[in-house]
Design brief:
Layout (H helix, E strand, L loop, with lengths): L1 H24 L10 E2 L5 E6 L6 E5 L5 E2 L1 E2 L4 E5 L6 E9 L2 E3 L7 E2 L6 E6 L20 E8 L6 E8 L13 E5 L8 H4 L3 H10 L7 E5 L15 H26 L9 E6 L1 H11 L7 E5 L10 H4 L5 H4 L4 E7 L5 H13 L5 E5 L5 H11 L6
Parallel strand pairs: 13-14, 13-15, 15-16, 16-17, 17-18
Antiparallel strand pairs: 1-2, 2-6, 3-4, 3-7, 5-6, 7-8, 7-10, 9-10, 11-12, 12-14
Helix pairs in contact: 4-5
GO molecular function: acyltransferase activity, transferring groups other than amino-acyl groups
InterPro entries: AB_hydrolase_fold, Esterase-like, Ig-like_fold, Ig_E-set, Mycobacterial_A85_antigen
Keywords: Signal
Length: 380
């Protein structure tokens, strides 16, 4: 019996070695990579989905691309060469949106998450885009949380302090209040917009005055964050609630906790999309508080017929107190008509403003460029 047991153990050991040897002999498939950025700016996307019937990759501001499946069930597609930038994308698998499981760089969003991929710019600093990391002094990001008595929820905001920020220096720092768009959260301008990187690079190049940038949560009523149409009354409540929280809670906290200049000439407000509309609503109705106002692809102010009610005190004399009113929109943006209507209203009122139209749709590809063009004009 003992001899039989030894024989069985020896046979099992030989079988184990044979199986292990066979496994080692089989070539291992290389790990799947997605996205893969090539030297000429082309990007290859891959997704393992053997049971899918149809897969696309959708990039913000671009036509979606059909992917092809290989005999292993991996879908892939390679783009044409892309300009240096940060691109958002998702997969569409048989009609359902899906983020890339192989890419951990995710754009935060309260309704529609997406992945991001960076196509780097040239090594030459003269040709680099402002949101590429460079060997320059870096500022700091500070994350604050508080309970809003005005809105009734717990919320947050971010504060960028420039390189070399000195709370004891004689001159206080000017402040830009920078607002995100609908469905973003307070981290949108840094996580996706790369505002801190843009400011670092432009300050190092002496194109931008060192400033504080306050990036708040832009919802004056939390229930507005939902899919589908929203009633005009809710949009108005949202803007008014945001204004009240900004004036009563955020600005006092910034001027208490940071070396911030409280003069209107040293205070700016700007934002994108919903945040652009809020910037116009807040800034143009409080010119005694803000001398610099910017709107990037603004949307949500209503029809032109209602503009006199939205801006009841906006006269030519009031507008003359502004240092800058800067209104930008991409020409492929669905909101270009609304922005042109807003500019026409301002012209009828005799309000001087700078109008900027650039190529592009309703995407961060436009808004990063807006911020890089707007901030050098501030506080001069």
């Amino acid at each position: 019996m003992r001899r039989l047991q030894h024989g069985m153990l020896a046979m099992m050991a030989l079988l184990t070695l044979a199986v292990a040897g066979r496994a080692q002999a089989q070539p291992q498939a290389p790990p799947l990579v997605s996205p893969e950025v090539q030297g000429d700016g082309r990007v290859t996307f891959r997704l393992k989905a053997p049971n899918a019937q149809q897969v696309f990759v959708s990039r913000s501001g671009a036509e979606r691309l059909a992917m092809t499946r290989d005999d292993q069930g991996t879908w892939s597609v390679t783009t044409a060469p892309l300009a240096p930038d940060i691109y958002q994308y998702t997969f569409n698998v048989d009609g359902s949106a899906l983020i890339d499981p192989l890419n951990g760089w995710v754009a935060p969003n309260l309704l529609n998450m997406s992945n991001m991929v960076r196509v780097p710019g040239p090594a030459s600093s003269a040709e680099a885009v402002p949101w590429d990391m460079a060997d320059v002094p870096r500022g700091q990001l500070h994350h604050h949380f508080y309970k809003s008595a005005r809105i009734g929820d717990h919320r947050d905001y971010y504060v960028y302090t420039p390189p070399g920020y000195d709370p004891r220096r004689q001159e206080r720092y000017p402040v830009l209040y920078l607002l995100h768009g609908f469905s973003d959260d307070a981290s949108g301008w840094t996580a996706v917009g790369q505002a801190h990187v843009i400011l670092d690079n432009l300050i190092a190049a002496r194109k931008v005055v060192p400033m504080l940038v306050v990036m708040t949560l832009g919802y004056g009523t939390p229930e507005i964050v939902t899919r589908g149409p929203r009633a005009p009354q809710l949009r108005q409540k949202n803007m008014e609630g945001y204004r009240d929280a900004l004036f009563a809670e955020v600005i006092p906290a910034i001027e208490r906790d940071y070396h911030a200049d409280a003069r209107r000439e040293r205070r700016a407000i700007a934002g994108l999309s919903m945040g652009g509309a809020e910037s116009l609503f807040v800034g143009l109705n409080a010119i005694d508080r803000f001398a610099w106002v910017g709107a990037f692809s603004s949307g949500g102010l209503g029809e032109p017929a209602t503009f006199p009610q939205v801006f009841p005190a906006l006269t030519k004399d009031e507008g003359a107190r502004l240092k800058l009113l800067w209104i930008a929109c991409g020409t492929e943006d669905n909101l270009i008509t609304a922005n042109r209507q807003m500019r026409a209203f301002l012209s009828e009122r005799g309000i001087a403003h700078e109008a900027v139209e650039t190529p592009g749709a309703h995407t961060w590809l436009v808004w990063r460029r807006n911020l890089a063009a707007f901030t050098p004009k501030l506080f001069r």
